[in-house]
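User: Here's a chain of 63 residues. Predict its fold as tokens.
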Amino acid sequence: MEKNLLLYTLTCNGGSLAACQSQCAAAYPDVTGDNFPAVSTCQSNCTTNCNLSNTLLLLLSKR
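Assistant: Prediction complete.
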């Protein structure tokens, strides 16, 4: 259980999906063709890493 909570804490930048996405927006204020892949990856990582449903399922399955 501790491992799953630690993983969430370390990979979900800012501790929530909104905070993580805000960090992506701050890192890439202008989306251009050149940086679009990096912006897309940043947003995708937020969606994956800040998914509370997955984290809860992992925690509940360890009971």
